[in-house]
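Example record

One chain of 796 residues, shown exactly as stored in the release files.
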Amino acid sequence: MRKDLGLILAVLAGLVLAFWSEQPPRPLAPDAPATVFSAGRAMADLTQMAARPHPTGSPANAAVRDYLVGRMTALGLTPQVQSAAGVRRVDRYPGPETFVLGGQVQNIVGVLPGRDRAAPALAIMAHYDSVPGSPGAADDAAGVASALEIVRLLKLQGTPARDVIVLITDGEEGGLLGAQAFFDQHPLAKRIGYLLNMETRGGGGRVQMFQTAANNRQDVDLLARGARHPLASSLTVFIYKKMPNDTDFTVSDKAGVPGLNYAFIGRQFDYHSPTSTPANLSQGALQHMGEEVLGVARLAAFDPALPARGPDKTYSNIGPWLIAYPPMVGWGLLAVAAGLLGWAVARARKAGTFVLMDVAQGLGAGLYLIAASVTFLRLARRATGAGFGFIEQRHLLAQAVRWEVALALVAFGVMTYAAASLGRGRGRFAAAGLAFAAGLACSAFGGLDPVGLGAGIAAAVAALLSFARPAGVPGAWTGGLALALLAAIGMQAAAPTTAFLFAWPILLASALAAATGLGAGKSPWRLPILIVGGALGLAWILPYGHALYLGLDLPELLTIAIWLSALVLWPLIQSEGDSPRPRALAIGLLAAGFIAVAVVRFAPVWSERHPQTSVVQFVIDHDAAKAWRVSTSPKLDPWSAEALGPAKPALRELPPLTRKPAWATPAPMIDGSAPAISRTVGPDGRQGLSLQGPGARVAFIRLRANAPLADVRLAGRPVTILDQPGRWTVIRWVGADQVTLDWTTKSPHGALEVQTGWLTDGWPAGAAPLPPRPKTIAPFDLSDSRVDLASTRLEW
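Predicted structure tokens for this chain:
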């Protein structure tokens, strides 16, 4: 009973500490002292910028640009507007097509002069455009408002050692176009020696410094000196490099400019959503953004030298401290952990509480815990009925707290079930059957799931091998720690900057093992030590689990947090003797978890605060002289079905507007000018293409040549496309209703197939109006727009 109470105390204390550590600071009011960052002051700018959606090329975006020019002028930055074409080829999409993002952008660039005008400058960067349909209060009005307040404070401090360039980019949402145009074309780009970028992927939470350039030793040193409440780790830098996500920092990093990239990612329902309004933004997150970037910006602006390049560091925060060290130190930490564990084993053997066979069973229980966690978490995700994708996931994001609680119950259920089965030593067939049944059940939702089935089989095998006889805590805990130690050694060898994620909990658990005789010592301090150590371990581990939950729609990755939590809690959760209570508790937790999953699946979640998305467009095919009402939503809600009209919707391909078939119903034609496609020949013999959609803001262009083209230029910018005959190139162009393409070719004869779609914001006046939307449904992205399609074939 005392151990059960100890487990409850450790878990509750760990949860409280973890929750407390994840809270952003209190926002300061507009009348806060002038020498500190105030979210209240920043909100004045943010409210002006995020009054309405303002995508690149829209009148609303031009109004935001003019407002920012005025604000930067008032700050003494002498801003200039860089009007340029930004072009990026994107190679991360697999498939038989080449993708290019481009557009006409208007960056705003201002300079706070420093004492040494020739020294490498500091740049503070954020973007002012929003996605269509979203006011963008977080993404990225929060970053721009923070930049303005930070520059005010830097100016108040005096003349910096170097110039501070304030770079407010356009077209980030269109494909990092403003940053690309700046670093390709602006003369100030070559002067930047260091850059701080501010982004968001949600509407709240603590801000995290999640990305650095390579060789970040002094970057981390700068962060440690400047951060007030740091949230950063070398793990996020490693993971972000493997992800397809990009920010403007991607462009500056590729240009060889080092720096730090910041973002907050809580309240993800509001990301790119109509609900990303000033009222829904967490001002605490804004306060944290400003405070963290300001601390580093002050050092980078006023220090005699900017950070130099040096070998990457391993780092993470523990509470308010940022712990950083060279990766080789990780081997020393693992050696200390192994030494502590060896000492604990020697003491337990001397006391007669250590059984060697238990070690093998503990290792097997660890494998069971890993495989079963993957199985049950994967089953929980598939059982929600929510599809996988940005739009499909919104059903879960609308009830993010409830969904996270469901996953936590399942996770703790699996952990306690593994520990109970090992300690009691009976029921191996029940444990194997439960895991195998869960693996099979994964395929009951959405078709065959080989990952869930494979993990279930692996867990069943581990159960049969590990739960045949009772195991004592000392040997079982040793086996679990030995398995984790092997994993940490592998991480240290393959990706040393990530190994701290395992090394630090293993070091703590080994210290607890040494201090408590592997959990079986006779000291009266044994239980208090295990409770305090378990709580502190959970307080550090759970925020990483929360970050995995927020950042990736892959709940099975939470297995890492479950495994690490088990390392520091094992003596408290493993049952001893024949008591059925621990296993009953585990079954109860699993049952509660899946009841919560059922609630997540069936509970009504759409509301005015969390509306369902809808995307409806009026599409005219000028070649076929036909029109359609179209929805690109994966599933049609009742309102969208009504908006498409009385005819039964059918899936229809509409290149180049969509890559996948979209729901469509026939509609009466309306008046309007067809997009213009014409061939041009320059005085130097270069051939070209002029494309125009009068009044449009976005163009979708699909091209395929039957002969290789060379020296291709899109809006005057070089881009490597159309060099492979027969391969389609897809271009998405924003911010202008005209675009040009020109090239040279060695082939005297050839042909170019051209498909275009021009999007004009707003439902066309000549079409029957859309039905009134309920407050629980909101237009999303490019909804409520007109698209004109036209195609041709040019020959030479």
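Notes: DSSP finds 21 helices and 24 strands in the chain.
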